[in-house]
Amino acid sequence: MSEHYFTESPSSEAKRRELTLDLAGRTVTVETMSGTFSPTRLDPGTAVLLRHLPDPAPGDLLDLGCGWGPIALESAFQAADAEVDVRIWALDVNSRSLESTAANAARLGLTSIRPVTAEEVPEDLSFTTIRSNPPIRIGKDALHELLETWLPRLAPGGRADLVVSKNLGADSLLTWMRGMLGDGFTAERTASSKGFRILTIHRDA
């Protein structure tokens, strides 16, 4: 693929396909498009993250870098099962990712999901929950800018869960996040599986 999944408006032909996978104990069929992140399967790192997510807290949830929507979809199903009122902001720079997430939410009847660009998120909004398979391959500087922008918007008492490959710098990223977030936050590795780390951030209540 000549274009990256973090391209805002891919110019290559949009090839659509259907995937069948398990989300929150359900077998569902979703649609993906070429030019997005992992359009041929559920990314292994995302799969690890989904297996380790607790039910979301009530309030606003940010799916940072939503791709075609697996984290947002899983979170919406979790919230419905737990009868928790959650508004899910599925954020991505890629227009095809946002289109696919919207289509998949509609297909599965998940009305709590809002696919958005960064500019469409209210500036004063904080999040009780943040979830992400962050785009490591955009480069360290861009990744740090992304996390510096969104992780501090975790609400008091909130929780963020990220999945990062050990081989792509999960441990060093954890150290950096601790220094960047500073007092009032804790960051720790809470799980490891298949070469991936789950990095969990809590903000003091």
Automatic annotation (TrEMBL):
GO MF annotation, one: methyltransferase activity
Signal peptide: none
Keywords of the record: Methyltransferase, Transferase
A Pfam family reported for this protein in Swiss-Prot or TrEMBL: MTS
Cited InterPro entries: RsmC/RlmG (IPR046977), SAM-dependent_MTases_sf (IPR029063), Small_mtfrase_dom (IPR007848)
Transferase found in the keyword field: yes
Methyltransferase small domain location: 28-199
Gene3D superfamilies registered for this protein in UniProt: Vaccinia Virus protein VP39 (3.40.50.150)
GO term, biological process aspect, one: methylation
UniProt keyword Transferase, yes or no: yes
SUPFAM superfamilies: S-adenosyl-L-methionine-dependent methyltransferases (SSF53335)
Name of the protein in its database record: Methyltransferase
Organism: Brevibacterium metallidurans
